[in-house]
Write a structure and sequence with these properties.
Radius of gyration: 17 Å
CATH architecture of the largest domain: Roll
Oligomer: single chain
Shape: globular
Largest sheet: 8 strands, mixed
CATH topology of the largest domain: 2,3-Dihydroxybiphenyl 1,2-Dioxygenase, domain 1
Low-confidence stretches: none
CATH superfamily of the largest domain: 2,3-Dihydroxybiphenyl 1,2-Dioxygenase, domain 1
Structural class: alpha+beta
Number of strands: 15
Strand content: 35-45%
Length: about 260
């Protein structure tokens, strides 16, 4: 069963400031704004990163799930891990796996050519997990949340190339890794003292809580050409720098010049 990390969603109190910071620091372009997220009391912006996407959402109404998430995690941070399945059979299998684990569906839609299902972050213990499948089954092309096609015209790969890892922190990371693994049908691998799930193009890493913000999406690993220029721009933006990583938008951004596997 092929599973591709296609999009990572961040939640912010101020959409414009986070999108502006990310596009300038990482030298990327905004590629799509989805008016459909207004039904959830949100505004959003998608940023193309290779063949995949960073999304930022922000509440525009009171009493939204994103607003509650901001309150619980004490500010901006990681929100959703969004993956693309390679078939409807795989999509249905993950839904069945989730039911077997007692994981609730937070929202789903089926318009025939596109299916989307979000699993509740309390049950997944660290973030929303969203699975999607469409008629195209193209891991490098058509992507419904980015308007289907056209986003390719905004891809810029001079500096930042791809998302190669997502890090989820929780009080009991082994338990969280087992839950995510059972839902996705993947076995966790022990790597340097942590557990990881290996997807087609990336890893999901499970680590111990390292701050007082609670369980959540705490870090991202990016494939880049040269970390130095990115770190220079991050420093100019007032970001905290830690080795080849910087803090921004409630997330630690780790910069790598090669893939993990």
């Amino acid at each position: 069963m092929g599973i591709q990390l296609r999009q990572v969603c961040l939640v912010a109190e101020s959409l414009e400031s986070v999108v502006d910071g990310l596009t300038k620091i990482l030298d990327l372009n905004s590629c799509f704004i989805d008016p459909g997220v207004a039904q959830f009391g949100l505004e959003n912006n998608l940023i193309a990163i290779g063949k995949n996407f960073l999304e930022v959402v922000a509440p525009i109404e009171k009493k939204t799930a994103a607003g509650r998430f901001l309150d619980r995690r004490k500010g901006d941070g990681g929100y959703m891990v969004i993956v693309q399945m390679d078939s409807e059979e795989g999509f249905s299998q993950v839904k069945q796996n989730a039911r077997g684990e007692g994981v609730r569906v937070a929202w789903e839609i089926d318009i025939g050519s596109w299916k989307n299902c979000q699993f509740h972050p309390k049950d997944m213990e660290a973030a929303f997990l969203e699975i999607e499948v469409d008629d195209f089954n193209d891991f490098e092309g058509y992507w419904h949340p980015a308007g289907g096609i056209g986003w390719e015209n905004y891809v810029k790969e001079d500096t930042t190339l791809d998302i190669i890892g997502v890090e989820l922190q929780s009080e009991f990371p082994s338990k969280t890794a087992i839950r995510w693994g059972r839902v996705l049908g993947k076995s966790p691998h022990p790597v340097r003292g942590n557990l990881e799930l290996h997807l087609n193009n990336s890893i999901v890493r499970f680590v111990q809580l390292s701050d007082e913000r609670g369980a959540g999406l705490s870090a991202l690993d990016l494939l880049v050409v040269d970390p130095r220029e990115i770190l220079k721009r991050a420093l100019e933006k007032g970001c905290f720098i830690e080795g080849n990583a910087f803090q921004f938008g409630g997330v630690l951004w780790r910069l790598h010049t090669r893939r993990f596997f």
